[in-house]
Amino acid sequence: MYNNSRRTILFPLLLAAGVLTGLALGLYVGRHDAASQLRGLLRSAVLPTNKLTQTLALIENQYVDSVSMDSLAEHVIPQLLAELDPHSVYIPAAEMAQLNEPLEGEFDGIGVVFNMATDTVIVLNVIPQGPSDKAGIRAGDRIVAINDSLVAGRKIPQNDIVKRLRGRRGTTVRLGLERRGIDDRVEVEVVRGAIPIKSIEAAFRISGTTGYIRLGQFSRTSFSELRRALTALRAEGVDRIIFDLRGNSGGYFDQAIAIANEFLHEGQLIVYTEDRNHKQLREYADGRGTAQDMEVAVLLDEESASSSEILAGALQDNDRGTIVGRRSFGKGLVQRQIPYSDGSALRLTTARYYTPTGRSIQKPYTIGDEEDYEGDILNRYLNNEFFSADSIRFADSLRFTTPGGKTVYGGGGIMPDIFVPADTTGLSKYYIEVAGRNILYRYTLDYADRHRAALNNVKTLDELQTLLDSDATLVDDFIRYAARQGETPRRRDIVRSRRLIEAQLRAYIGRNTPLEENGFYANIHPVDNVVTCAIEILNENGKND
């Protein structure tokens, strides 16, 4: 709950028809199903005698056996798109809801965060005023039955549990709960409702007058969430922001523009796009942003892509803030999602975007070679780029200069102003074992069970830190727990990894409180070298004001 592969090209001769098909599909939205759209388009194509038109018409009208044109379309359209760029894709109807849900800002469900680390559905948190909260479900409860069907100890995949708990709003699901201190099973009925999905995973004052905001994706509600977060942080005296976009693969283009507008001054260019006819659409800041006076540091890594890069590029090219971390993914193509009436959709690349200095940050790709494109991140690691900025090379032809005289590069992601290498100093064989075998996480669930009342009463980060600080034996208790799970203590390894282990324990325990992700990130940041670097940069900038 927390949290475009394609086959080898089969029809290389269909490139021209494929492009024509993709670009014209939008004219047929909502009129027919996928196969009918394809047939109608092919019959009216500018090139009526092309091979694709002829082949599909012959199959439909003269093939010896009956053929499902719907099924044929499901196979042909992806192969056509495989001849285009790596981000033009066909999305089957069965996958649309799962792909779109995180971006839409809500889903229908019961409103709990749970985990199945021990083959039991453990409720970690209950959304305040949500359906489960109203039904009396508490953090720490075990869901052992769903609609009278036993689910505990059955090794049911977590995705299947999610499907059983979710359903149309207004419908009812019966749950059987085990609750600490209660011998009998607790039976509740939950009326499903609309559950908000937060794209801002964490927002809190991290140090002095510095705030921390982590944006997981650019959803439909991201801008409004950001405005609320900034208002709350200002009320705590925050005047500078760490904006964490690491792992953020993008989302809605307009949300990136709206968020960039919050930080930029009137008239500053945010981004511009250019289509196949070289028509440009330019987006400028309107001067109404509420964070124009705030110092900002943006955190990136190799998984930051698309809208994350639009936002980071807008701030970097306008000399507005500091980009910290590692080189971003490198996606500079804009897709338009074109729905079919059967629930499937086409995501077709219709433009390229450029940062304010005019650079495209799209990394190179070869048509049809998706394996090499997707393997780029691994190649960066093998090339030592995660650990040394000197291993990263940009062509002089891709050099650009910001208004303030800073040199920036295009052609493969956003290169941070301050490079921070991946940190491996706290890793040891012992830590890798206890983390990889999930022993560390299971211990925090056990700890939360034993301290559930105290954890549920935590209301602020200060209260959380006081509670955790009061347990001086936390790490030693964990080491004994791990030993009972078969992980023999390695003293030298423990000395090396102790700080990392303690931060992980505190972070996972913090997530098991009503503070949720704030409790996690507030405790993990002391061992996060990118965050600590950003704090130092903002503090230094504050001294220079």
Search tags:
single chain, 545 residues, alpha+beta, 6-stranded antiparallel beta sheet, 6-stranded mixed beta sheet, 20 helices, 19% strand, globular, disordered N terminus
Polypeptide structure, described:
There is one protein chain. With 545 residues, this protein is an alpha+beta fold. Helix content is 38%, strand content 19%. It is built from 20 helices and 21 strands. Strand 17 and strand 18 form a beta hairpin. Helix 14 crosses helix 18 and helix 18 packs antiparallel against helix 19. It starts with 14 loop residues before the first helix and ends with a helix. The N terminus is likely disordered.
Give a quick summary of the entry.
By secondary structure, the protein is of the alpha+beta class.
Helix content: 25-40%
Q: What can be said about the biggest beta sheet?
A: 6 strands, antiparallel
The helix/strand class is alpha+beta
Shape type:
globular
What is the CA–CA distance across the termini?
43 Å
The rounded Rg comes to 26 Å
Please work out how many helical segments DSSP would assign: 20
Give the percentage of residues in beta strands.
Answer: 15-25%
**Contiguous uncertain segments of 5+ residues:** 1-32, 44-48
Helices and strands in order:
Elements: H1 15-24, H2 34-43, H3 51-62, H4 69-81, E1 89-91, H5 93-104, E2 106-109, E3 112-115, E4 121-126, H6 131-135, E5 142-146, E6 149-150, H7 158-165, E7 172-178, E8 186-191, E9 193-196, E10 200-207, E11 210-215, H8 222-235, E12 240-244, H9 253-263, E13 269-274, E14 280-284, E15 295-300, H10 307-317, E16 322-325, E17 333-339, E18 345-354, H11 370-374, H12 376-382, E19 399-401, E20 407-409, E21 418-419, H13 429-436, H14 439-450, H15 452-456, H16 461-469, H17 474-484, H18 491-511, H19 517-524, H20 529-544
Parallel strand pairs: 11-12, 12-15, 15-16, 16-21
Antiparallel strand pairs: 1-18, 2-9, 3-4, 4-5, 5-6, 5-7, 7-8, 10-11, 13-14, 13-18, 17-18, 19-20
